[in-house]
């Protein structure tokens, strides 16, 4: 059990929250710049050199705008909804090990050795706000589930039919995609044997290959589900279509809207950290990170590697946004329930078999590829596709009036 | 007469093959396009550091041309004022000074309301002596409506400023056939 030091914790909280919120601001600029580059444009470049002060201007706009609470809304929930959204999003950053962290020590053979190991662990400084949390990943997923409250409260309190429908669709999407998100990570837990994020990263450091090489299908499922959780394209139907009509953030303006928009980016950052630690090896770069011998330099190098991977994930999210057309809502739900959950289950079964029979982990890579291609084979035999099923059209005799319903058939 | 079944043509969406059902190969193709655009040359023009390249006959602010002797070419024939669809040209003609032997009239005042003008170029096309022309100046601003009503001096000054950038599109120095006195 690591020692709880109030000053350490406070400093880390301020640092992580400050860095996180700063990164959110610059992700808005990054999104605009990357979107512009993909569209052969340049993006904002007037406010500072290369537009680097643009987020300050945007933040200033949100602060200086008039805070309006419309008369027809449910006041308590209206003000509470963005707060709940941001709170759950930021709380998830408490277990993310931002730099190299040693996992809690394993049980030792003698009591003296155990006490010694615990004393050593207690003395180390870890770049995590809540170190040693053995249910690390479960905590993050629980907070992701709580985030649905922000969406539902926002849509409900607005007292607006379209907001409500938008919020219901969005919450249905988020809840549906939580299941494949969890299932994708089950394989990782079984292989590593722990839910502790530090242990998972340390496992990947010791076994040189990252977990994405052993569980590519699970990594793909995780990434797609994380995009759907954050309502990023191609799953942004609740944001996009209803934006024309309503959507759960219709009735919001100024800082409350700013908080709701921040929630989306904080979810993206948290998903990036999760993906980097669970699948992309955390702070390991196939052994290169251990070249630095000085502890401070090593910590900085490891933090840089982890943050670099997280930023790569975010940039990939920004690029994918402009690559794929949007999913229709029924296609979205079909994808979650008919494609990703069966694949996730099959993946878990493969992992269980491989671990029980003591097979080398490369068998899992082959099994993932086999599952993916098998899913393709099954899909080819479906009418239409699995996400877009079509009923066979039965032709009527030529002389009948067109469009006669079931009674005539 | 109502439609029958054989009037209805059923259209099916094309069946997706194996690689299409996997969805990822199509995504990789899309990513190639997207990332290709991300790292290619951008087509944005950074105004005002980079001015746009205007086509040769761009219709901007008007000017009154001078001939080689420095006199205003216009002979106050009212062709431009008649042709103007927005009625923004106001001319008051007067007898030409005695030493200008090759013309009978000259414009005492020549006023164009640049805000009424629709920059169609009909006046330029109508002028028989190539006196009025539209230049390539597009960034015209003024602090009041009165400031944007250009008189003869202002129009001539536009000429003085733009001879280098916009050469006169006419037979330089000569008046057109309509301006010559009829043969005796």
User: Whole-number radius of gyration of chain A?
Assistant: 24 Å
Q: Helicity level of chain A, as a percent range?
A: 55-70%
CATH topology of the domain at 62-168 in chain B: Alpha-Beta Plaits
Please outline the major beta sheet of chain A: none
SS-derived structural category of chain A: mainly alpha
Q: How many independent structural domains of chain A? A: 1
- Number of helix segments of chain A? 14
**Which whole number gives the mean pLDDT of chain A?**
85
Q: Low-confidence stretches of chain A at least 5 residues in length (pLDDT < 50)?
A: none
What is the class of the domain at 62-168 in chain B in the CATH system? Alpha Beta
Biggest pleated sheet of chain B: 3 strands, antiparallel
Q: What is the multimeric organization of the chains shown?
A: heterodimer
N-to-C SSE string of chain A, H for helix and E for strand: HHHHHHHHHHHHHH
Note the gap between the termini of chain B.
81 Å
Which range does the strand content of chain B fall in?
Answer: 5-15%
CATH architecture group name of the domain at 62-168 in chain B: 2-Layer Sandwich
- Rounded mean pLDDT of chain B is 83
Number of strands of chain A: 0
Word description of this protein:
The complex is a heterodimer of chains A (409) and B (184). With 409 residues, chain A is mainly alpha-helical. Chain A has 14 helices and no strands. Chain A has one domain. Helix content of chain A is 65%, strand content 0%. In chain A, helix 2 (54-64) packs across helix 11. Chain A starts with 5 loop residues before the first helix and ends in a 28-residue tail after the last helix. Chain B has a domain at 62-168: 2-Layer Sandwich (Alpha-Beta Plaits), CATH 3.30.70.3270. The radius of gyration of chain B is 29 Å and the shape is elongated. The A-B interface holds A 34, 36-42, 45, 220, 319-320, 322-324, 372-373, 375-377, 379-380, 384-386, 390, 393, 395-403 and B 2-8, 10, 12-13, 16-19, 21-22, 24, 27, 30-31, 33-35, 37-44, 46.
């Amino acid at each position: 059990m690591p020692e709880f030091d109030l000053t350490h914790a406070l400093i880390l909280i301020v640092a992580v929250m400050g860095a996180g919120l700063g990164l959110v601001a610059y992700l808005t600029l990054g999104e605009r710049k990357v979107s512009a580059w993909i569209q052969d444009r340049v993006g904002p470049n007037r406010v500072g050199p290369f537009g680097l002060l643009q987020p300050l201007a945007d933040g200033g706009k949100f602060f200086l705008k008039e805070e309006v609470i419309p008369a027809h809304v449910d006041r308590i929930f209206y003000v509470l909804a963005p707060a709940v959204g941001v709170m759950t999003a930021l709380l998830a950053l408490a277990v993310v090990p931002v730099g190299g962290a040693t996992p809690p020590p394993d049980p030792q053979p003698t009591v003296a050795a155990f006490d010694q190991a615990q004393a050593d662990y207690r003395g180390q400084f870890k770049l995590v706000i809540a170190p040693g949390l053995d249910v690390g990943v479960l905590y993050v997923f629980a907070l992701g589930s709580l985030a649905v409250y922000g969406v539902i409260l926002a849509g409900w309190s607005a007292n607006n039919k379209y907001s409500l429908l938008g919020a219901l669709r969005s919450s249905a999407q988020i809840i549906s995609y939580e299941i494949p998100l969890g299932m994708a990570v089950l394989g990782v837990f079984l292989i590593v044997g722990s839910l502790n994020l530090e242990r998972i990263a340390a496992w990947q450091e010791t076994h040189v290959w990252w977990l994405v090489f052993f569980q590519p299908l699970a990594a793909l499922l995780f990434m797609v589900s994380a995009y759907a959780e954050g309502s990023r394209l191609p799953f942004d139907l609740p944001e996009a279509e209803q934006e024309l009509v309503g959507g759960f953030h219709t009735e919001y303006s100024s800082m409350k809207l700013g908080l709701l928009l921040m929630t989306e980016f904080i979810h993206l950052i948290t998903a990036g950290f999760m993906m980097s630690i669970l699948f992309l090896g955390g702070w390991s770069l196939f052994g290169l990170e251990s070249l630095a011998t000085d502890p401070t330099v090593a910590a900085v190098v490891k933090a840089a590697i982890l943050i670099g991977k997280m930023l790569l994930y975010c940039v990939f999210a920004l690029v994918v946004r402009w690559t794929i057309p949007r999913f229709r809502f029924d296609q979205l739900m079909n994808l979650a329930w008919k494609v990703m959950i069966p694949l996730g289950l099959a993946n878990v079964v493969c992992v269980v078999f491989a671990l029980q029979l003591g097979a080398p982990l490369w068998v899992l890579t082959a099994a993932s590829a086999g599952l993916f291609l098998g899913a393709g084979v099954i899909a080819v035999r479906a009418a239409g596709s699995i996400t877009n099923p079509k009923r066979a059209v039965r032709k009527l005799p030529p002389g009948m009036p067109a469009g006669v319903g079931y009674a005539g058939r | 007469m109502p439609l029958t079944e054989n009037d209805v043509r059923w259209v099916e969406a094309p069946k997706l093959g194996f690689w299409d059902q996997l969805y990822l190969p199509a995504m990789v193709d899309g990513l190639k396009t997207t990332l290709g655009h991300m790292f290619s040359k951008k087509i944005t023009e950074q105004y005002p550091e980079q001015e746009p390249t205007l086509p040769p006959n761009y219709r901007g602010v008007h000017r009154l041309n001078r001939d080689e002797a420095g006199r205003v070419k216009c002979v106050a024939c009212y062709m431009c004022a008649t042709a103007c669809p927005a009625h923004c040209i106001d001319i008051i003609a007067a007898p030409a000074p005695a030493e200008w032997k090759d013309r009978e009239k000259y414009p005492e005042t020549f006023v164009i309301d640049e805000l009424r003008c629709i920059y169609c170029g009909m006046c330029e096309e109508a002028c028989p002596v190539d006196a009025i022309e539209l230049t390539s100046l597009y960034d015209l601003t003024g602090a009041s409506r009165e400031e944007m009503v250009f008189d003869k001096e202002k129009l001539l000054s536009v000429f003085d400023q733009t001879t280098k950038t916009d050469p006169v599109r006419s037979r330089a120095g000569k008046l057109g056939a309509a301006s010559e006195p009829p043969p005796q």
